[in-house]
Amino acid sequence: MAKWHHVAAALGLAASLPWYAIAQENTGAPQPAEQDERVVLEADYVYEVRDENKLVAEGNVEALYQGRILRADKIVYDRTTEKVRASGNVIIIDETGSQQFADEIEVNSNLEDGYAIGFSARLDQGATVAANSAIRQSNGVNALDQVVYTACPVCEEDKTPTWSVRARRAVLDQESQMISYRDAVIEVAGLPVFYFPFLAHPDPSSDRRSGLLIPSAGNSSKLGWFYQQPYYWAISDSSELTISPMVTQNVNPMLELDYRKKFYSGAININTSFTSEQNFDSDGELFGEEKLRGHVYGSGLFAINNQWKWGFGVEHQTDDLYDRRYDLDGQDEQRGLYASQPRRLLTQLFAIGQGDDYYTDVALLKFQGLRENDDDGELPTALPVFYGEKYWDLGNMGFASVNASSAILSRDLGEDSHRVSVGADWTDLNILPGGFTFEQFAEVRADYYGLDEDVSGEESVSRAVGNIGGKLAYPMIRPGKVIDIMVEPAVMAAWGLSNVNDDAIPNEDSLLYEADEASLFDANGFGAFDLYEGDGKLAAGITTRAVWKSGPSLSATVGKRWRSRPDNAFDPVSNLDGTSSDWIIATTADLGELLRVDARARLDEDGFSLNRIDAKLSSSYKRFRAIAQYYKVDERIAIVGGGDEGVLLRGDIKVTSQYSVFFGQLRDIQSNLNARQEYGIAFEDECSRFELVYMRSELQDRTLGPEENIQIRFSLKTIGDGAADLGSIVAAYSPREMLPYAVGDLNSGMTALMRCARLQDLYGPAV
Hints:
Blueprint: H1 5-16, E1 19-23, E2 39-43, E3 45-49, E4 54-65, E5 68-78, E6 83-93, E7 99-108, E8 114-122, E9 128-136, E10 141-150, E11 163-173, E12 178-188, E13 191-202, E14 211-212, E15 216-220, E16 224-228, E17 231-236, E18 239-248, E19 254-262, E20 266-280, E21 286-303, E22 308-317, H2 322-325, E23 344-354, E24 358-369, E25 381-393, E26 399-410, E27 417-431, E28 437-451, H3 453-456, E29 460-473, E30 476-478, E31 483-496, E32 535-548, E33 553-563, E34 583-590, E35 596-603, E36 610-621, E37 624-633, E38 644-654, E39 659-668, E40 673-684, E41 688-697, E42 707-716, E43 720-725, H4 726-732, H5 735-738, H6 747-753, H7 756-763
Parallel strand pairs: 1-2
Antiparallel strand pairs: 2-4, 3-4, 4-5, 5-6, 6-7, 7-8, 8-9, 9-10, 10-11, 11-12, 12-13, 14-17, 15-16, 16-18, 17-18, 18-19, 19-20, 20-21, 21-22, 22-23, 23-24, 24-25, 25-26, 26-27, 27-28, 28-29, 29-31, 30-31, 31-32, 32-33, 33-34, 34-35, 35-36, 36-37, 37-38, 38-39, 39-40, 40-41, 41-42, 42-43
C-alpha cells in the first residue's frame, strides 16, 4: 500500500533540520541539497509569523529531501507544538516513485504519528485507494475511514471503475502487509454485488499474505446449492496452505486442502480433500454406506546434486467417481517421471541421474483404475522399473552406447513377471559423393523374463534380439528469391533376428505403440521392450518442405514399411501386422496467424481407404481465434472395437476491445452425443475478467449422467479470482442486505479517487 507515512518523514525532517529556502515568484527546478541531511524548499513566499511562533511557505511549495518530494499550496511549521501541516493540492512522491494525494496532512515531529484529509494514492500493480481521512499510528497501523479501493484505471472522465471495494473503515497493518475492511461492499460497474462484514486481502506490494480468497458458490444437480470459501494461509516464507471448506444442500460438507512448500533442494505440492458421506448420483440421490471418502494428488522434486534428483507423485481416490462427483480438477496431470492413461491414477517414487555421457532412472509404480471395468487387483505394481545408458562419442567412428533395463511387476490377480535386459547399439552418419547421406546402425539386446508358470505355462523365457542395417537419403535443396524448396527421398533396410516374440512373454509396455512418421525409418518399430521387430524390413519415404521468404511454409512426409514375413504378435493397431504397413502421411501447412493445418493419416494399402486421420486447423487472425480438430479411427485398428470418430471445436471472437464470445464443443460422432459443450460471453479490461458460461455434457458414467449449468466466472486484479453460478449470486444476496449504510457516505472518498486533473500532472493525459 502507498506509504503515505513517508510524508511524515519528509515534513518532520524539514521541520527539525536547517532549511535551504528559496522564495521566488515562479517555481523552478529543485536545487540539489548541499548535504544529505539538508531539506531543499522552494516556494513563491517563505515567511515567519513570530507572534504565533510559526514558519510558513506558500505558493507552489516544493520540498525535496533524500529523493522524496512534497508539493502543496501551503506548508506551516508550528514550533510550539512541533507539528507540520501541508494543505491545498498536496502531492507526495517517495524515492520509489509512489505517489500520494491529499487535501491536508499533519504530522508530529516524531515522524510517526499523523493524519491526512481527502487522501488518495497510487499503489503497486496499478491499484488506487481513496479515503475521507487516514491516520497513521506509531505502531505501523494505518486507519482509513470511508474507503474506496480498486485496481482499475480511474482517470477517464466520468468513468466508473469496473469494480471497486467500498468500506466504512479499512486498516493497513504494515508489519503483516494486509488490508482489512469493515462493512465492505464489492461493486461491479458501480452496482453492489457482494457484502462482507469483514474482508481482508494482501497489500498489492506484498507477494503473499494470509487472508480470505474470493469464494465460489452455485448450484448443481448433484450437490444442490453449494458454497466454498477458500482461506489462504502463508505459513512461512517457504510454505503455504489453502483451506477450502465447502457446504452443500444435498450432501455433507467437504474440506479441500492445497499445501505447497519449498525446500533448499526442491518443492512439494499436495492437494487433498475428505468428507464423510454416502455415494450419490447425478440427481443428488444418496445410496450405499456412509463412510470417510476423499482424494490426494501430490508431487515433489528434489535435487540431490548437479546430476541426480529424486521425486514422487501421489494419486489416490477412495472411490472411482469421487473426483467427478465433487468436480475436482487435476486427474490428468503428470506428477512425476511417468504419465498415466486417462481415468487411471499413478503413484510413483523415482530418481533420475544425467551427465555428459550417461542417463539413468529408477521408479516404483502403483496404479489405481477409475474405469467401470477396472479391477485394481489386475493392475500391476512395479517394484521397480529401471533404465540406464552409457554412451561414447567415437569421432569418425560414430556413436556407441550400452544400456541395461529391468522391470519387476506383481499383481494380486493375474500374472506376475520380471524382466532384465542388457543391450548395446552403434550409429555412424557419413556424407557420400554426390550429396547422399548414409547412416549405418547396429543394435543387440538380451532379455530374460521370469514368469508365473501357472499362468504362462513356462517358468522363464530368454531371448536375443538385434538389428543391423542402414538408411540412405538424398537431400536436395533449391534456394530461390521467393521460395526455398527441400526434397529428401530416403530408404532404410535392416535385418533382425527372427522368431523373437515368444507367446509366453507378457506384453506390458507395447500395447499402444503404433508405427508412424516418427518411427518410419527405425529398425525396430516398437520403442519399448516386450515386443521387438526382427526379421528383414524395408522402409521408403519422401519428405518435402517449401519455405516462402514472406513466412508461410508447407511440409509433408509420405512413407511405407515392408516386412519379410508376418509376426502374429503384432496387432493391426501397431501398423506392423502382415508384410506391409499402411501408407503413412503427415503434413503441415503454416500460413502464419491466418491458418495452420496439421494432419496425420493412415491409408490402407489396398484401395487407399482411410484407416485413421487426425487433422487440426488453428487460426488466430485479428479478432478471431479458433481450433478445429477432426479424428477418425476405423474399427479394424481401434484399440476397443467399434471404431472412434469425433470433432473438437474451440474458439473466441473479440466483438469489441473488451467484449468477446467464446465457444467449445466435443462431439462424439460414433456415439452420437456431445461429450462437452461450452458457450459464453466475456468482458475483460485492465483490472478484471467476467465470463457468463453455459455448459452441458451428455456423458454417462455409471451413476453419473448428463448435466448442464450456467456459471459466472470472474477474476479481480490484486484481490483474487473465483467462480460462482449465476443463480447463486441472485439468490444468496439482495441489495438490502448488501448495503447496511448509504452509498453516499463514501462520496468524498470517491471524489478524491477521481481527481484526475492532479493525477495527470504526474501521469500525463488519460488514455
